[in-house]
């Protein structure tokens, strides 16, 4: 999943965002590796939480709250 996310980044559209997300994806990949190597769940739980936060941000970006108040 992380490789696909990183591969889908568009550095031409927004270089700063793409670089920031690259750093996050690299960090998460390192934590997954550490969790697998040490057979500990904590790094994997951390990555799952980070991915959930990213997902929530994308959902909000795609479906911004509507202000239907009069």
Compose a concise summary of this entry.
By secondary structure, the chain is mostly helical.
Summed over residues and divided by their number, the pLDDT gives a mean of 93
Count, helices = 3
Q: Helix/strand/pairing class, anyone?
A: mainly alpha
Ends apart, CA distance between termini = 42 Å
| Fraction of helical residues | over 70%
Helix-strand topology string: HHH
Features:
about 70 residues
List the helices and strands and how they pair.
Layout: H1 2-7, H2 15-38, H3 42-62
Description:
It is a single chain. Helices cover 73% and strands 0% of the residues. The mean pLDDT is 93. It is mainly α and 70 residues long.
């Amino acid at each position: 999943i992380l490789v696909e996310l990183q591969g889908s980044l568009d550095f031409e559209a927004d270089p700063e965002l793409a670089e920031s997300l690259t750093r996050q994806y690299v960090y998460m990949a390192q934590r997954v590796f550490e969790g697998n190597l040490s057979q500990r769940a904590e790094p994997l739980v951390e990555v799952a939480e980070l991915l959930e936060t990213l997902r929530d941000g994308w959902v909000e970006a795609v479906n911004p709250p509507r202000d239907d108040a009069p």
